[in-house]
Specification:
Layout (H helix, E strand, L loop, with lengths): L3 E3 L2 H9 L4 E3 L13 E7 L8 H11 E12 L4 H8 L18 H10 L2 E8 L8 H11 L10 E8 L2
Parallel strand pairs: 1-2, 3-4
Antiparallel strand pairs: 4-6, 5-6
């Protein structure tokens, strides 16, 4: 059984029309929705939008069964795209999502999960984006080959377990 939670009424309407169960609610007040306990909580590209990501993690912890799992993805502060834009001297306000409140690295993602009671099970980079244009991929590799490793991917994912 799956249920989604979002605070955007229009997004909820679209998702519900597609047949998915979704509730309007605040990620910082999950336990107030009376949903019961879950085996897994997924927060994909969410916590970087929150002013209090720790409060969300505390709420997620309360909503998980003992030994439950949280899966989190966050934008990588050191992604190839961000480094390339900085190298070009482009102000990050021009390419940073206006709803973001912070950037994450592997270390800060781990520290945040552990600080809120989760035992880290896995921490890795998502697949590195590669242009679909062959010559653009070659050009990027030749010009910035050092930045084509996984550690420069767009996102980081982490899996944390609630300890029983």
């Amino acid at each position: 059984e799956v249920v989604g939670v979002d605070n955007d009424a229009e997004a909820i309407r679209i998702v519900a029309a597609a047949g998915y169960p979704v509730l309007q609610g605040d990620a910082l007040e999950l336990s107030s929705l009376g949903l019961g306990e879950f085996d897994v909580v997924v927060a994909g590209e969410l916590i970087e939008h929150l002013s209090c990501p720790g409060k969300f993690l505390d709420e997620a912890y309360r909503c998980l069964r003992p030994d439950g799992v949280i899966i989190v993805t966050v934008p990588n502060a050191y992604s190839f795209t961000r480094l390339k834009q900085l190298r070009k001297g482009i102000d990050d306000a021009l390419w940073t999502h206006s709803q973001h409140t912070c950037w994450y690295s592997r270390a800060t993602t781990r520290f945040l999960l552990e600080r809120h009671g989760f035992q880290l099970q896995e921490l890795a980079y998502c697949d590195l984006f590669k242009s679909t244009r062959f010559w653009k991929r070659v050009q990027d590799y030749v010009r910035l080959g050092w930045a084509t490793g996984a550690r420069f991917s767009e996102s980081i994912f982490a899996v944390g377990r609630k300890m029983p």
